[in-house]
Amino acid sequence: MSTLHFHRETDILARAIDSAPGRWTPEVATAFLGIKLSPADVVRMNELAEKARDGTLNSDEELEIESYRSAARMLEILKLRARASLKATPAIS
Fold first, then answer.
1. Rounded to whole angstroms, what are the CA distances from 86 to 15, 24, 26, 70, 90?
2. Is pLDDT of 27 > 80?
3. 69 with 41: CB under 8 angstroms?
4. Dmax of the chain from CA atoms?
5. For residues 26 and 86, is the Cβ–Cβ distance under 8 A?
6. What is the DSSP letter of 10?
7. Of 31-35, 44-48, 49-53, 82-86, which gets the smallest average pLDDT?
8. Distance, CA of 41 to CA of 93 (rounded, Å)
9. 74, 8 in Cβ contact below 8 A?
10. Distance of alpha carbon 36 from its chain centroid, rounded?
């Protein structure tokens, strides 16, 4: 898979999510803000990042790290939309 493929998936999902910015319920928004990578994924991502800095990634690892980058971008988009939804929610007095 090429890097372009990952960007296309991310872009498609971002557009789908962006179709209704600021319209998530507070419960949905809060749930998305709680999404995190598993500890094992964080460890693996850090291992790959170190190898990338050293210039020692093989072709499979390059695809793997790009998958992590794509997933991280998607999570950030989801969390940005969640924050926008919470900000747009009127405060209850």
1. 19, 8, 6, 24, 8
2. yes
3. no
4. 57
5. yes
6. H
7. 82-86
8. 41
9. no
10. 9
